[in-house]
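--- STAGE predict ---
source: upstream dedup step, 1 unique chain passed
mode: sequence only
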Amino acid sequence: MFHKIISRKDFADLVKDDMTIMIGGFMACGTPETLIDVILEKGVKNLTIISNDTGFVDKGLGRLVAAKQVSRVIVSHIGTNPETGKQMVEGTLKVDLVPQGTLVERIRCAGAGLGGVLTPIGVGTMVEEGKQKITVEGIDYLLELPLRAELALIGGSIVDKAGNVVYNATTRNFNPIMAMAADTVVVEASKLVEIGEIQAELVMTPAPLIDHIFVPEKSR
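--- STAGE serialize ---
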């Protein structure tokens, strides 16, 4: 349980072509930038990325989009990265735009083992095309299905060697939800501490959810 720290090469070995990967962060705040560096270096292709947004051309997962390593993104907005819009218009990148609240609920459903979430958002619009509509007490809802990934990459402000994670302020965003919804979870630690140095009541993502801990050189 307590031998979770992995090297740059170990992480690179986890990443394959055609994977579905969740990446935490909100406009690159709380995004594990060094893990993205490794993916760029490895050059894997045809990735499906689930995230709140596509960051910026030179920051966050937007760098993967700019490098054309991504074939599909499932996000709530793309406005901060013009390269995403450009590739979408050109037809080289598929973009699934999902309302932010719906997106996080679909991820949460996967982590909780639920079959989906009912939402009124999109009823009566093109959003409902191909989706099941369910009426509850006279109100129409769309059934939005869970989103799960093979790999989740999250950014932790303080991580102990067991894998307990604390997020600083708004770096928390999507990170703890994504840590529940992937087959393998890797946390990039801004600061690594010994087991017991984090007060139990401050832990935001508990150790059992974390498979691997990556510590960038600058954080050691």
